Amino acid sequence: MAPPAELQHQLLAKNKHHSSTIYVHQPRAGEEEREVGQVLGCRPLSVAALTMHITQLNRECLLHLFSFLDKDSRRNLARTCPQLQDVFEDPALWPLLHFRSLTELKKDNFLLSPALRSLSICWHSSRVQVCSIEDWLKSAFQRSICSRHESLVNDFLLQVCDRCPNLASVTLSGCGHVTDDCLARLLRCCPRLRELRLENCARVTNRTLVAAAAHGRALQTLHVDFCRNVSAAGLRRLRAACPRLALRAEHSAAMIPDQPPRGVPAPGSALRKLLPR
């Protein structure tokens, strides 16, 4: 007979290894029957009788176990049997998604569903610096680097727009290629979005601010830090249109915009001298 739910929770809490078999910690000699009997509230059982396969846990326990694993570990465990695959595909397991690199967006180790509430894509690497260079200053080699991942975040966010209408929080950091059009669609398709935090997103302009005022009905917080193509005038207009919006724009409006100064031709050494170090 399978142990009751209370015992399953205790067994799960005692086993930290990702094994397909759950083992009870061996108590001191002469105490195992008393301890097990106290847990079950019935006649004593031997410790050996409590060895169980992971699939004997109920769904609540399995979801709890999966919640402690990272995305790769969840996927690897799910591949061991159809029952665990079914747990992996349960939307309740995926209310939060955090990505630390753009390559993670291309993996199949997560699920997008209406249960998603919080999304974070924080990319920090040497390639972020290349993406942050003004387009008119990039060399051909730098443009080739950017072209390999230029559409990754936009394409991913379009999937989020289609599958995650209940999204409440989005954080994008270092996503230099995310566009105003993509963010405007996100605001339209996710009417419950309360927090939008953008940092070092070079292509974000005043058009995103206009979209926030027009479509961000539930929006309470908007950060556009280090977004150099956002202007002070655009920020003033948004503050006037949405006075209750918690708006932050650190090091944004005063930065050099992503366009060549007037009267300056193609990039060169003379132009670089004009830029502050």
TrEMBL record:
<dbReference type="InterPro" id="IPR036047">
    <property type="entry name" value="F-box-like_dom_sf"/>
</dbReference>
<comment type="subunit">
    <text>Directly interacts with SKP1 and CUL1.</text>
</comment>
<dbReference type="InterPro" id="IPR001810">
    <property type="entry name" value="F-box_dom"/>
</dbReference>
<dbReference type="GO" id="GO:0030018">
    <property type="term" value="C:Z disc"/>
</dbReference>
<dbReference type="InterPro" id="IPR032675">
    <property type="entry name" value="LRR_dom_sf"/>
</dbReference>
<feature type="domain" description="F-box">
    <location>
        <begin position="60"/>
        <end position="97"/>
    </location>
</feature>
<dbReference type="InterPro" id="IPR006553">
    <property type="entry name" value="Leu-rich_rpt_Cys-con_subtyp"/>
</dbReference>
<protein>
    <recommendedName>
        <fullName>F-box and leucine-rich protein 22</fullName>
    </recommendedName>
</protein>
<keyword id="KW-0677">Repeat</keyword>
<dbReference type="GO" id="GO:0005829">
    <property type="term" value="C:cytosol"/>
</dbReference>
<dbReference type="Pfam" id="PF12937">
    <property type="entry name" value="F-box-like"/>
</dbReference>
<comment type="function">
    <text>Substrate-recognition component of the SCF (SKP1-CUL1-F-box protein)-type E3 ubiquitin ligase complex. Promotes ubiquitination of sarcomeric proteins alpha-actinin-2 (ACTN2) and filamin-C (FLNC).</text>
</comment>
<keyword id="KW-0433">Leucine-rich repeat</keyword>
<keyword id="KW-0833">Ubl conjugation pathway</keyword>
<comment type="pathway">
    <text>Protein modification; protein ubiquitination.</text>
</comment>
<feature type="region of interest" description="Disordered">
    <location>
        <begin position="256"/>
        <end position="277"/>
    </location>
</feature>
<keyword id="KW-0963">Cytoplasm</keyword>
<dbReference type="GO" id="GO:0031146">
    <property type="term" value="P:SCF-dependent proteasomal ubiquitin-dependent protein catabolic process"/>
</dbReference>
<dbReference type="GO" id="GO:0005730">
    <property type="term" value="C:nucleolus"/>
</dbReference>
<dbReference type="GO" id="GO:0019005">
    <property type="term" value="C:SCF ubiquitin ligase complex"/>
</dbReference>
